Amino acid sequence: MTDLKKIDTYAKKWIKEASDRIKDSFSKELTIQTKSHANDLVTDIDQATERFFIEKINSVFPDHRILGEEGFGDDVQSLEGVVWIIDPIDGTMNFVHQQRNFAISIGIFEDGVGKIGLIYDVVHDELYHAISGEGAYLNDLKIPQMRKTKLSESILGLNATWVTENRRIDSSLLAPLVKKSRGTRSYGSAALEIVYVATGRIDAYLTLRLAPWDFAAGLIIIEELGGRATNLRGEKLNMLEGGSVFFANEELHDEILKDYLHNGKW
Ligand code: IPD
Ligand code: CA
Ligand code: CA
């Protein structure tokens, strides 16, 4: 049987070590490159952090596989066995511009089932963590099950991109949602936005395009707290390809899906 406690203990130790390295980099000059487009940034620290995790995981758990954003892990085509899904720095733009509001995000799956979710807000020293079936925690504090909310009393995590002209969704579809909600927020780190939903700081997070490493850990934490995690059509999330995502408490998820997303037929 897989020893989840052992994996969790090592993962937390490595997260703390990696975060010390990241904080050390604040006083040094970053090497910044762009990836798919001019605003898709990657730094030498994103890459070094991913390599750090891969080296550590390979040395202690040689039979585990790693799907990492920066591509130094394995060519993962299935979720058989134990797979670590890693975003070494989620919120790289914040990391570069603000030196805060970014996180290390690690989701660990066994045969496709989410087992351990770890999201570390490096600068605020906030570790959100869950082992499936054992509750979710923020540092040492147990996070309560998610409360239910109505849209009119909810804050939505939503980027303005999706209510302006864009190539993924008719921008008029989400506008009524924004109008009916109590307000919207956008923090620039999907992993943090998902755990803000988990802790009730916001009530839903919706976006049109994420990769598996952006939401793998968050998915495990949200599900542990009784929340819903689907794509914007209400379907199961695809852990190998990603796509749109929609995280919310149960009641709000139902309301938005039915009244604003036409039960996924948009
Ligand atoms: C990004 C952040 C951002 C989200 C982007 C992601 P990165 O991740 O999570 O909030 O809107 O879609 O790509 O590139 O900083 O790891
Ligand atoms: Ca990311
Ligand atoms: Ca990243």
Write the layout of secondary structure elements.
Layout: H1 4-24, E1 32-34, E2 41-43, H2 44-60, E3 65-68, E4 82-90, H3 92-98, E5 103-110, E6 113-121, E7 126-131, E8 136-138, E9 141-142, E10 155-158, H4 171-180, E11 183-185, H5 190-198, E12 204-210, H6 212-224, E13 228-230, E14 243-248, H7 250-259
Parallel strand pairs: 3-4, 10-11, 10-12
Antiparallel strand pairs: 1-2, 4-5, 5-6, 6-7, 7-8, 8-9, 12-14, 13-14
Helix pairs in contact: 1-2, 5-6
The structure holds D-MYO-inositol-1-phosphate (IPD) and calcium ion (2 copies).
One calcium ion binds at residues 87, 90, 190, 213-214.
Which geometry do the CA atoms define? globular
Uncertain stretches of 5 or more adjacent residues: none
Mean pLDDT: 97
Largest sheet: 7 strands, mixed
Number of helices: 7
Strand content: 25-35%
Bound molecules: D-MYO-inositol-1-phosphate, calcium ion
The arrangement of helices and strands along the chain is HEEHEEHEEEEEEHEHEHEEH
The CATH homologous superfamily of the largest domain corresponds to: Fructose-1,6-Bisphosphatase, subunit A, domain 1
Side by side, the strands of the main sheet go 3-4-5-6-7-8-9
The Rg value, from CA coordinates, equals 18 Å
> What's the CATH class of the largest domain, please?
Alpha Beta
User: How many domains make up the coordinates?
Assistant: 2
Number of strands: 14
Q: Find the structural class using helix and strand composition.
A: alpha+beta
Share of residues in helices? 25-40%
